[in-house]
Amino acid sequence: MSRRNPSPYDIQQMYGDPSRLKKIRAAQDTELHKEAAEVLAKAKQIPADSLDAWDNASLEQVANLATQREVEELRQAIARVMELAGEHYGVNKDVFWKRYHARKNAVARDK
Questions:
Q1: Which of 36, 94, 96, 102 counts the most CB atoms within 10 A of its CB?
Q2: Please, how many CA atoms are within 13 Å of residue 105, restricted to the half-sphere of its CB?
Q3: 74: how many CB neighbours lie within 10 A of its CB?
Q4: What is the pLDDT of residue 51?
Q5: Rounded average pLDDT per 10-residue block, the chain, 111 residues
């Protein structure tokens, strides 16, 4: 039996509902945090000399992935507050980084 390609209607039904996408993402986040916590807990029980460089690097990646979405959500909330205040998150961010690097370069030149 061959499988047909999904129609635009099928795609809309699978992915078009924003509330469904939010629920899917929330479930994925929950599972990601749960699995990451389990992996990191298991790693703490294993002697450090038993893990090779890749094991340590992959554990660091797991820890970063677990917090990455939380940081993304925080940035979105900050952007929303700035938007409500009449500011633009992206523009303010660019201005900040330009000033930051200019100060950093000025300090480095003065040394």
A1: 36
A2: 6
A3: 11
A4: 92
A5: 70 72 82 90 91 94 88 92 95 96 91 75
Q: Counting Cβ atoms within 10 Å, is residue 1 exposed (0-12), middle (13-18) or buried (19+)?
A: exposed
d(CA 6, CA 3): 9
Angle, CA 95 vertex, CA 94 and CA 99 arms, to 5°: 115
Q: Residue type at 1?
A: M
CA dist., res. 109 & res. 111, Å (int): 5
Asked whether the CA dihedral 36, 42, 48, 52 is positive or negative, the reply is negative
Q: What angle do CA 36, 39, 41 make, to 5 degrees?
A: 105
* AA letter at 95: V
CB-CB neighbours of 79 under 10 Å: 16
* DSSP states of 20-43: HHHHHHHHHHHHHHHHHHHHHHHH
3-class DSSP state for residue 17?
Answer: coil
